[in-house]
Amino acid sequence: MDHAPSTDVEPQKEPHRANSAKTSRVLAAVLVILGVLVMLYPVTSTLWNNYAATKAAQEYAKLEKNAPQEVKNTQWERAHEYNENRTIGPILDPWLARFDENNSDYQEYLDQLDANDAMARLIFPKIKADLPIFHGTDNDTLQKGLGHLFGSDLPVGGKGTHSVITGHTGLANSTMFDHLNKAEKGDAFYVQVSGEKLKYVVDQIKVVLPTETEDLRPEQGKDYITLITCTPYGINTHRLLVRGHQVPLDPEDHEVFDKNHGAGWQWWMYALLAAAAVVLLLLLRWLLKNKQDGESQETTETMNDEGAGADD
């Protein structure tokens, strides 16, 4: 009679503890998986945004190719006339300067090279950039591609012109000009605009303060394009200027415009994938071990119960 209470209570406690442990394991696994998904978000978002930017550049090229030659000629001539006749004012830092976009000069600027959403396409094979160039340098523009700096010449070439193209570095979900710091003198980059193909060779690389814009001014008899981004990475106190001068296209250069030079998989993406794989493998190992421990414990308890029944 002394053992009767214990046989009534124990069977109710064991299932409760087992269910509680199982729930804790499931919750822990869900939290780990959610953490892995958060870890991989920069990879997926960057790949997607890079794809979208490169697709926009190639879509521009396709539209330009299929556009009537008369339209392309008109756009080309008007752009050169604009460069020749525009009022040359101060060149301002694209990330610091703010101005009224409703003024007549800016509206006239927006009317140039406006047959498509983008005004041109930039290809820089060395830094894996194949990006559309849009009018202006506001934040929304620089989130989807490169921006042409209002106040500089349109990127159609010509003696005495200097076009300035800006792009972000250090965006959490897009590459843009992240690799511009890998550019070296002698590297070639290309511009496709209004049915024309232009080639530039890097001849100057400088790091300057945002207020130091002297290197962005045109020079008589020179044909320049300068690519500009913030530096150092994540600090952005200075500007990296990569300038190129126009040279004739070589026969093999025409193939450049038919290929995809956009940013793809990068080392940090592989690193995050490897880290995620390690975490998931550790989680799987932990779950299997817990399952085995649980089965072992159930077997032991069953044997004990059978032994106790035999003793009775």
UniProtKB/TrEMBL annotation:
One of its GO terms (molecular function) is hydrolase activity. Gene3D superfamilies: Sortase. Pfam families: Sortase. Keywords: Hydrolase, Membrane, Transmembrane, Transmembrane helix. The chain crosses the membrane at residues 26-48, 267-288. InterPro entries: Sortase, Sortase_C, Sortase_dom-sf. This is Class C sortase. Residues 1-20 are annotated as: Disordered. Residues 1-17 have a biased composition (Basic and acidic residues). It comes from the Bacteria.
